[in-house]
Amino acid sequence: MIPLDDTVLQALLAAVVALPLLGAVAALLPAPPGLRGRGPEQAVLRHGVTVTGAVLVLTVLLALGFDHDHPGVMQAQTDVSWIPALDVRLHLGIDGISLPLLVLTALLTFLCALHSYAKRPQGPRPQAFVALLLLLECGTLATFAVLDLVLFFLAFETVLIPMYFLIARWGGKDRGPAAWKFVLYTLLGSVVMLLGLLVLGGNAGTFDMVRLAQQHGSGLSHGTQVVAALAIGLGLAVKAPMWPLHSWLPDAHTAAPTVGSVLLAGVLLKMGTYGFVRILLPAAPEGAHTFAPYLAAFAVVGIIYGSLACLALARKGAQGDLKRLIAYSSVGHMGFVLLGVATLTHTGVNGALYANIAHGLITGLLFFLVGALKDRTGTSDLDALAGTTGAALYGRTPRLGGLLAFGAVASLGLPGLAGFWGELLALLGAYHPAPGLSRPAYAVFLALGALGTLLTAAYLLLVVRRVCMGDPATSSPAGSSAALPDVHGHEYAAWVPLVVLTVLAGLWPAALLGLTDPAVQNLLPGVTR
Amino acid sequence: MTAPTPSPGTHDLAAGGAHSLVQSVDWVAVAPPVIVALAALAVLVADLFLTERRKSLLGPLSAAALALSLLALLPLTGGRRATFCTTAGPRACSYVVDTFTLSIQLLVLGAALVTALLSMTAVAQERLPAGEFWFLLLSSACGAALLPAARDLATLVVALEVASLPAFALVGLRRGSRLSSEAALKFFLSSVTATAVMLLGVSFVYAATGSMHLETVAERLPHTDSRLGTLAAAGVALTLIGFAFKTAAAPFHFWVPDTYVGAPVPVAAYLSVVGKAAGFSGLILVAVRGFPPYAHAWGPALAVLAALTMTVGNLGALRQRTDRAHGAVRLLAWSSVGQAGYLLVPLAAAGHQDHQGHRDAAVGATVAYALMYAVVNLGAFAVVAALRHRGDDSAQDGRLDQYRGLARSHPFAAAALAFFLLCLAGLPPGIIGLFAKVTVFSAAVDAGLGWLAVVMAVNVVIALVYYLTWLALLFRPAVQPTAGRARWLPLPLTVTIALTGVLALALSGAPQLVLGFAATTLF
């Protein structure tokens, strides 16, 4: 769109990864004169907004400078040797798969920083909060930008410590155990993944993802590929998360502060599915082929399980927590993403990548909305909110109620909004799985997945009915005494971009699919569909 | 140092000639341990003539000697040097300077220097006898520096004893402390048992092969008389068991926690790094250089030992409660047992490689990991030592709970400790710790030791629990706010923390500096 020199692109990408890290260090230092603001806390929160804003601007520039005619080609590549002993190279680059995720990450982190600036996080010093947020951003951006297996592992691990502290120090009820569960579960997953990466890289003779994708598994024995795919897949499946390895997720999302939930759901889960598409499918194709039916089966169980859990939580008298409900709905949505990956077709993988982005936008928005609701009423317990007739947000805070309803219908996959295309394509991929995969089995997965969309619609509409509708006069005991404030200016600022992008992605899917499809074709050369 | 033993059966005086009796010694090559030994003697003599007030000079003097010996490593970087060689028969040398020697000597002497910096405050505050302390520290360092260069079994044993005998005394140096004497006794008894076992093994090996030189032993072991086969195998096994004892591998680890707690903190730091390095370099030399024909036997044995050691160590550390006295040192002691397990992994991997080149490469991973571990573990001990001297409440001495609120009262020390703990756990931002672990994992995976890699993966997760518990304590509000302003830490301790912290940060930026050892030819 705007012609940029390749060196400029390289510098932009390197800056996108390095800037949050420098910002994190700077956040811990005392503010220099002239930037002290109204006090150290306000100054550091503003620093967070500035840095994440700058990173967002850089990623947007990167997206504009990206050669949209050749999204399948790695662009803005930097390739410098870092640790020759381990054959680790600082290899950065973006293509049509990583670019949208990079922009999504920068956007969501910026919105989180904005949200924290307007509403100081409840907990200890904000200096540490901002530093952790920026370190988290560095890790997530690096995950999507690096093209070296060991660096990928490094970036993957970088998010653990900041997220642990965000949950453990700024979280809500039961945050301690939830944080432990998150960090231990994901660490175990990623260490197993490291073993797989070492097997893969050691046997293929390179740790470079681009070269591994070019080799496409040639020179790797079937056994090696199966072992590598199993270990890598397990690690990524914990992160994604795939049922039955998901049990850290509901606790972590429920206990995390709003910002933490948004980033967990919006960005961190994507690291898992991105790893599937970027590493597992191209580098160990036979291994991926061996495990694809199992992955698909687990994904479908996850879809059904997630929506049934949500239905149970949404029932009257179940004392379901709204954050927990959205967390379980994430299990279901990520199930669609994994199903798309497991079809091993262009259609399915494109759908998975699409659903990835859509889920990031919509679930990010939903967590913001529920966080706002909790701030206003003091609870996210569905029964306490709904009372006898319903929380009646339409009547009490029409704009917030409207946005919540919008988020819910977007999440259930209403055509015309972002949630629709990804799940449709994933199911379509399952209708025609890659050659060699059992078609009847995938037909069953398809049917179960379709059933899952119905269940998803059921619980989300139930939530809308119980939260948005009802009688304002006799509504809930919680927070009923005072009138609830409607959406504030800063909340508009944080939410409108997500709403707009959800609508845009729903109406103009070609924009995103045009980016991912050529890259997916490169990663899956042997498949026609 | 033993006189070079000419191989039996090759007493060909005519070939050796008259100059076989007078050797030319390469003094540059042996300079690093010799400087330390001379300094030790000088300190001991000076102690007699210095007045009580002037005895504080001995610390800086010892530190200077250690720094000088570190500088003496510089001229040796050019290439392989050997001295104390047999003049008759096949050339075999007792003292060899190669990359392995240099890297371990760098580790040992650097760690001894850091210990010296740490000890200056401790010697003054705990009223340790200055002359004895510095003499013992330097003697032990001299032995540990000699060890990696030793290439015959006798020199190895002597060097190991020179390194460990003064260490017993160092542990028991706190006069009137029951804990200290008990610790010294435990350490002494277990170590002497190890030496006895080792000596028996060495004598068997000598009897079977007729040589003390590792190279010659490696050549002759496969061709020993079939009637001596059992003797040779028993000798190999006993020697290795003796060295495993010295590395505090499970089940020979039981003395570690009590000894570390009973010893002055700097001595515990010294034992955890230098003592371990000495044991490991001996084990490496004996196993990989001396007994490669038995790799099929010691490889699996070391693998089991590694798995056992890391599991026992990490579970022991996991059991530590935060309100127990000396919890911090105890935790570091258990964690050092766990880390010894990781250090054993590449050695076990070496035993599973068929090619000598691959074996040496696997050993490089141990060296790289040990260098990383030395820096960050000494750093962690430095912070522990510094806080012990904070002296706000002697009743809860060294409890982990004491570390609550450290981020507020001493942000610099807290940040450093946090970084060291993350390096030990192997998680970013402790990048060097992460890559050192990756190197070890890589060695295991390359050797096909998948099960050991999985055991280690589980252990890494277990270890994270206690490292992260401690880390999280630093940032919690203190139980009772410290009265008044936070005191400054003593200068030598501040310097140590800064030094190790900067080093760990620099290594995180350029891991190649230590990981390079995993990719070069060491021997």
Automatic annotation (TrEMBL), chain A:
Coiled coil: none annotated. Keywords: Membrane, Oxidoreductase, Transmembrane, Transmembrane helix. It is found in: Endomembrane system; Membrane. GO terms for biological process: ATP synthesis coupled electron transport; electron transport coupled proton transport. InterPro entries: NADH_Q_OxRdtase_chainM/4, NADH_UbQ_OxRdtase, ND/Mrp_TM. Its main location: membrane. Its EC number is 1.6.5.-. GO terms for molecular function: NADH dehydrogenase (ubiquinone) activity; NADH dehydrogenase activity; ubiquinone binding. One of its GO terms (cellular component) is membrane. Residues 148-431 form the NADH:quinone oxidoreductase/Mrp antiporter transmembrane domain. It comes from the Bacteria. It is a multi-pass membrane protein. Signal peptide: none annotated. Belongs to the complex I subunit 4 family. This is NADH-quinone oxidoreductase subunit M. It comes from Streptomyces albus.
From TrEMBL, chain B:
The gene is nuoN. Belongs to the complex I subunit 2 family. One of its GO terms (molecular function) is NADH dehydrogenase (ubiquinone) activity. It is a multi-pass membrane protein. It comes from the Bacteria. This is NADH-quinone oxidoreductase subunit N. It is found in: Cell membrane; Endomembrane system; Membrane. PANTHER family: NADH DEHYDROGENASE. It comes from Streptomyces albus. Keywords: Cell membrane, Membrane, NAD, Quinone, Translocase, Transmembrane, Transmembrane helix, Transport. Pfam families: Proton_antipo_M. NDH-1 is composed of 14 different subunits. Subunits NuoA, H, J, K, L, M, N constitute the membrane sector of the complex. GO terms for cellular component: endomembrane system; plasma membrane. It catalyses: a quinone + NADH + 5 H(+)(in) = a quinol + NAD(+) + 4 H(+)(out). Residues 150-462 form the NADH:quinone oxidoreductase/Mrp antiporter transmembrane domain. GO terms for biological process: ATP synthesis coupled electron transport.
